[in-house]
Design goal:
The protein is an alpha/beta fold and 380 residues long. It has twelve helices and 17 strands. The strands form two sheets. Strands 1, 10, 11, 12, 13, 14, 15, 16 and 17 form a nine-stranded mixed sheet that branches. An eight-stranded parallel β-barrel has the order 2-3-4-5-6-7-8-9, surrounded by four helices. A hairpin with a 1-residue loop joins strand 10 and strand 11. Helix 1 runs parallel beside helix 7 and helix 6 packs parallel to helix 7. It is globular and about 65 Å long.
């Protein structure tokens, strides 16, 4: 990654810690997704599990068809704030979930036939229902993110899907994570081989997420070709829900150095936390890119960047800088729009980062700051 490609901005205008989303970069991603929709005649949904900054929804809904949700809360957010179609899937629903979801969802996708059979009488006729299938094929290397790992609970395998019941109008599968169109091509071959009979019976198919469409090396033309041929072959509507691709490389997390401690290496303690504010750093794990920083051997000043919580492993990574860090130095971590905001937490009572947006006019607006009451209201 070119770690200087995020447009420059006045760091003094940003309180820390703070997520900053660039509206121009977001719209650039959306324009590419709209192009995919128009050329392939598919419908792209914003996956709220990845990006749910609803202050950007007025912009996003100019380009995308709707949202995909994973819970009653996400479905309600999609209905009330996005205002277009809401597609909902969860590994299991309670009756309470269903009672709420039927007020907010246009599509309800079930993980098993037993769930469908349990709730079918509760679902109004205007809601279109689908089943999630598990093709038992994935090229994802990290099991934590692999929905098709052995003994996965996600979706019905070929062995357990004997027939499609009346009332099921579509199929959903998800077997990708941050991958290119060539992976989708191989995945579709397996899906078609295993579920060809069902594909000929349905009206729509959801290809799920994990499509890194807005990445610079993504093969957009192959994706368009795959969708077009699949759609024509089966006469279906194709949905994609690439939440990460919507916000990929559109946001940063601005943080400040609180202290430098020494223990064989120099450790810069920041006012942002991997554990609390960027949990995928530890879950993936991965080392985020930082503006002006490189791998430890490149520049003369080497630091381990760490968070302020009591978790021993609250470590962001090892970096080098061309200038010495001191308390008050500001650091900008790249690609922090997707997943970070929706997954963050208040471990140790650490305050959540503020949320800001840089508009197309280069104005910086602080959208939200978080206080003690936001922490307290989560507890009892």
């Amino acid at each position: 990654m070119d770690n200087n490609r995020f447009p420059s901005f006045n760091l003094e205008l940003i309180p820390t810690p703070c997520y900053l989303i660039d509206e121009t970069l977001l719209e650039k991603n959306l324009a590419l997704l709209k192009q995919v929709q128009e050329k392939s005649q598919c419908k792209i949904l914003l996956a709220l599990k990845a990006f749910a900054m609803f202050s950007t929804f007025p912009l996003i809904r100019q380009y995308l068809y709707g949202v995909s949700a994973s819970s009653p809360h996400e479905a309600r957010l999609g209905r009330e704030e996005f205002g277009r179609e809401v597609h909902t899937y969860a590994p299991a629903y309670s009756q309470r979930d269903i009672d709420q979801l039927i007020s907010h969802s246009n599509y309800l996708i079930f993980n098993s036939l037993s769930q469908w059979q349990r709730y079918v009488k509760s679902i109004p006729e205007h809601i279109r229902c689908g089943l999630r299938i598990n093709p038992e094929y994935s090229e994802i290397k990290t099991d934590l993110y692999n929905p098709c790992a052995k003994k996965s609970r996600l979706g019905m395998t070929r062995q357990h899907l004997k027939h499609l019941p009346s009332g099921i109008s579509g199929l959903h599968f998800h077997a990708m994570c941050e991958q290119n169109a060539d992976t989708l091509e191989r995945l579709l071959e397996v899906v078609e081989e295993k579920f060809s009979k069902e594909l000929q019976q349905v009206e729509w198919v959801n290809f799920g997420g994990g499509h890194h469409i807005t990445r610079s090396d993504y093969n957009v033309e192959l994706l368009i070709d795959l969708i077009t041929r699949f759609r024509k072959r089966y006469g279906v509507t194709v949905f994609l829900e690439p939440g990460e691709a919507v916000a990929l490389n559109t946001g940063v997390l601005v943080t400040s150095v609180l202290d430098i401690v020494e223990n064989d290496i120099s450790i810069a303690i920041l006012d942002t936390s991997a554990e609390a504010h960027m949990p995928d750093i530890l879950g993936m794990p991965y080392r985020p890119e930082i503006i002006g920083a490189e791998k430890p051997e490149v520049y003369p000043y080497k630091y381990r960047l760490a968070g302020p919580t009591c978790l021993a492993g609250d470590i962001i990574g090892d970096y080098s800088f061309s200038e010495k860090l001191v308390p008050g130095s500001k650091i900008v971590l790249l690609d922090m729009a997707h997943y970070s905001m929706v997954k963050n937490n208040t471990f140790n009572g650490v305050a959540l980062p503020s949320i800001a947006i840089r508009t197309s006019n280069d104005d910086i607006k602080i959208i939200r700051t978080f206080t003690y009451n936001d922490y307290k209201d989560r507890l009892s």
